[in-house]
Automatic annotation (TrEMBL):
The species this protein was found in: candidate division WOR-3 bacterium
The protein, known as: Aminotransferase class I/II-fold pyridoxal phosphate-dependent enzyme
PANTHER family: HISTIDINOL-PHOSPHATE AMINOTRANSFERASE, HISTIDINOL-PHOSPHATE AMINOTRANSFERASE 2
Record domain Aminotransferase class I/classII large: where: 4-67
InterPro entries: Aminotransferase_I/II_large, HistidinolP_aminotransfase, PyrdxlP-dep_Trfase, PyrdxlP-dep_Trfase_small
Alphabetical keyword list: Aminotransferase, Pyridoxal phosphate, Transferase
SUPFAM superfamilies associated with the record: PLP-dependent transferases
GO molecular function, one term: pyridoxal phosphate binding
Length: 76
């Protein structure tokens, strides 16, 4: 997430909070359309962040590709 210039919160849990710097509904809906389920955390006072559970390597790679596409980074 650092390489994508996204703020994130380090965790000892099986999830990461990622701050997209915009209403979290926008990346949430984009990822959902790509078949990726994440959790908005607006109800915890984090309106621009999503909770992303660590998955398998394949799932994590799919997530990163989708976030890059969302941010306009393409295949970089």
């Amino acid at each position: 997430f650092k390489a994508l210039n996204l703020r994130y919160y380090e965790s000892a849990c099986n999830f990461i909070l990622v701050d997209f710097g915009m209403d979290s509904d926008i990346p949430y809906n984009y990822l959902l359309r790509k078949g990726i389920i994440v959790r908005p955390v607006k109800n915890y006072g984090l309106p621009t962040s999503l909770r992303i559970t660590v998955g398998t390597q394949e799932q994590n790679e799919k997530l990163i590709r989708a976030i890059k596409e969302f941010l306009g980074h393409g295949d970089s």
